[in-house]
Amino acid sequence: MVTTEAALIGALLDEHHLPETNGRMAVCRRCGAPTEGPHGVHHIPNEGRLARSSQWLDAQSRMRNAERARGSLKR
To answer: pTM of the predicted model, to two decimals?
Structure first.
């Protein structure tokens, strides 16, 4: 059973990127979050990885903001 928080983080990861698996393991190579299967279509982070997945999303957001700021300075 997936908790509400896990479903929310999974949806945010799905919104950010499609799961990238190697076809044998149900883990996204890009963010490390578990997926629904080896050919996963959705991220399904487990309770033990919610904090890590949330931190990964925060870091991606900060990197994107920094890239935008650098881009606006170059113009």
So the answer is: 0.83
Q: Is residue 12 very low, low, confident or very high in pLDDT (cuts 50, 70, 90)?
A: very high
Domain boundaries, the chain: 4-74
Instruction: Please report where in the chains the tokens 């149900």 appear, as a residue.
Output: 26
Three-class secondary structure of residue 11 per DSSP: helix
- Alpha-carbon gap, residue 42 to 11, rounded angstroms: 8
Measured CA to CA, the distance from residue 63 to residue 41 in angstroms comes to 25
Question: Shortest CA distance to 27 belongs to which of 64, 3, 4, 53?
Answer: 53
Per-residue pLDDT tens over the stretch 25-69: 999 999 999 999 998 889 999 888 899 999 999 999 999 999 988
Cα radius of gyration rounded to whole Å, the chain: 14
Q: Please report which helix (H) or strand (E) contains residue 55, including its range.
A: helix 50-74
Local structure of 21: helix, strand or coil = coil
